[in-house]
Amino acid sequence: MKFKRKKGFEAIVAMDENRGIGINNRLPWVVPMDLRWFKKKTINKTVIVGRLTAESVSWKPFSKRDNYVLTKQESSEIRDGWLKYSDDLKQELISRGSFILGGMHIYKLFWDDIETFWVTEIAHKFTVDTVFDLDFSDTEWAKEFVSEHGKTNQSDHPIKIYKYSRL
Fold this sequence. Notes:
Layout: E1 9-15, E2 20-22, H1 32-42, E3 46-50, H2 51-56, E4 66-71, E5 82-84, H3 87-95, E6 99-102, H4 104-110, E7 114-122, E8 130-131, E9 141-149, E10 159-166
Parallel strand pairs: 1-6, 1-7, 3-4, 3-6, 4-5
Antiparallel strand pairs: 2-8, 7-10, 9-10
């Protein structure tokens, strides 16, 4: 797989009306339109997820993507496809045009290096234990509407998708 050089990471997240993103390290919803959007944006890319998120969902790599799980654990605890975090590794992942998938700790770890953030807003308030608490301030990010999808027979939750670009 050939990768073009980028300045920073892309990231993708779905959140509810209260900026909730998860419960017990899992998504608290199933919204098929958002899952299709996720697949479209991340297919044939390098994707990165944190260890805690991976462990909580019995991580199975996404097909047609280079998958990496980041950890700060010692090498004896690292599984196949898991990488120990370092600044050198971060630069290598940036050069691959990598997508940050979360969880919240990983979003925070890479926040200053994310150039584009794809955000799905789900029109519902879910029970969550993890909130997206980073701020897309107007002075640092430009917000662009991408699309909107109403209720369907597969989901009662309308969504709006936005692209945030670092200024």
